Amino acid sequence: MYNCAVILAAGEGKRMKSSIPKVLHKVCGREMVNIVIDSAKKAQIEDIDVVIGKGAEQVKEATKSRDVTYSLQDGQLGTGHAVLCAGDFLKGKEGTVVIFTGDSPLIEEDAIKNMLNFHNKGKYKATVLTAEVDDPTGYGRIVRKKNGEVLKIVEHKDCSAEELKINEINSGMYCFDIESLVENLDKLHNNNVQGEYYLTDVIEILKNKGERIGALPVNFEEVMGVNSRLQLSKAERVMRNRVNNMHMKNGITIIDPNTTYIGLNVKIGRDTTIYPGNVIEGNTVIGENCVLYPNSRIKDSTIDDNVIVQSSVILSSSVGKNVTVGPFAYIRPESVIGRSVKIGDFVEIKKSTIGDRTKVAHLTYIGDAEVGSGCNFGCGTVVVNYDGKVKNKTLVGNNSFIGCNTNLVSPVKVNDNTYIAAGSTITDEVPEGSLAIARARQVNKEGWVYKKGLGK
Ligand code: UD1
Ligand code: CA
Fold first, then answer.
1. Is residue 65 domain-shared with residue 172, that is, in the same domain?
2. Which amino acid positions bind acetyl-CoA, per UniProt (predicted)?
3. Of 46, 144, 158, 452, which is the most exposed, with the fewest CB atoms less than 10 Å away?
């Protein structure tokens, strides 16, 4: 049976108090609307239309990688009006449309598939996904007859005192027979407290026509809506638990899942251990047997096997096998760290390549440089890559020993097998096999202290 989906994402989200459209707020690093699109696709719904309105261009831009179509809702007159705006998308289609709201990101593949099965098997014209919840405040309530049949959905603001006591809520997700939905959308009115055209009223209209209405209760965690920052944080917690549970199932040790923040796109190899306070974001891949000690942020980076990181920031870079990073290192975008490298404390690497087995142990800045293998950077080395106008390149060959407190004034080249004396300011090429000393000779003025009367 043909199916498709319409995702309602035109609302502003006033309760978020935000300048970005609500559905673009992120849960575990991914925009809510994209999470919904991805779940629908996982449930084998290919044909997806997103209703946009408030911040339409932003929503389009944020979803452009997802292969969906768009309908524009000019003026947010309610969820029923929003679906009406997808009329061109639904026109002429036969089968089932699944309606999602872009602000309910916790819905999963299985729940969607179950809803579709339930709807098709029961031959319903409409099926609403519901949940029982202790505090139903803000949600539409499911009003059932004594025999359990669904009569209608009443919005919180329109509820009578009796209806407010109902704990079964409307998730805002439904399956509809496309033709039955389309032919009743223009029968909606906005004669309610919010003055909106409610999609939920289609249920009552169909019921009054004697059509079969299904209701499928699921776990509240699947359908939680996000209308406020508080609810956003609750959704984040649920999603974070799911992500962390998945990694633990795959053989990763997470010491404290409550304080470990792993994005939805992150991949992690077996036997890696993650200590509290780590934030792993974007398209990051972490290898096997790594140890992430507390308090690092790793974003859009590839970390190979057996890497140890502690209290550091790694952005858009790659780190080879057996490397140690930190504590307190900062690896900035476009850096490539080879194998068995040591990046120690208070080291900053920016847009640089560091060859295998090179040690940059402490208090060093390396920017716009290509560094070979087997080098040793003494404490306090600075690559002087910026002359006030442009960033220049520095080349350091293999097996170079850079003495402490050296400045490498770019552009400059240090060839293979070289030594640089501590405290040198290198401005000229250092030839292969040589020692470079670039500092003033020491002068001792004997007896100077006493002559000045400063002796004690
Ligand atoms: C809606 C349901 C409510 C349900 C709840 C579940 C209605 C009338 N109410 O209420 O029964 O319990 O979701 O979370 O449907 N939107 C548009 N255009 C509009 C209005 C809304 O695209 O004109 C979109 C919003 O961007 C949002 C979604 O529809 O993604 C839901 O809108 P929202 O205003 O959050 O509805 P709720 O009050 O939460
Ligand atoms: Ca909502």
1. yes
2. 385-386, 422, 439
3. 452
**Residues 202, 275: one domain?**
no
Domain extent for 277: 249-436
For residues 176 and 259, membership in a common domain is answered with: no
Residue 12 pLDDT level (bands cut at 50, 70, 90): confident
- Are 253 and 385 members of one domain? yes
CA atoms within 13 A on the CB side of 209: 17
12 C-beta neighbours (distance < 10 Å), count: 13
Q: How far apart are CA 99 and CA 85, in angstroms?
A: 13
**Among 85, 17, 2, which residue's Cα sits nearest to residue 51?**
85
Q: Compute and round to an integer the Cα radius of gyration of the chain.
A: 31
Ligand 1, atom nearest to 104 Cα: 14
Give the rounded percent of residues in the chain with a pLDDT score beyond 70: 100
Instruction: State pLDDT tens for residues 288-336.
Output: 999 999 999 999 999 999 999 999 999 999 999 999 999 999 999 999 9
pLDDT in tens, 87-136: 999 999 999 999 999 999 999 999 999 999 999 999 999 999 999 999 99
d(CA 104, CA 228): 12
Choose the residue to mutate in 36, 37, 73, 101 for probing ligand 1, maximizing ligand atoms within 8 Å of C-beta.
Answer: 101
Q: Active-site residue 362, yes or no?
A: yes
Does some domain include residue 456?
Answer: no
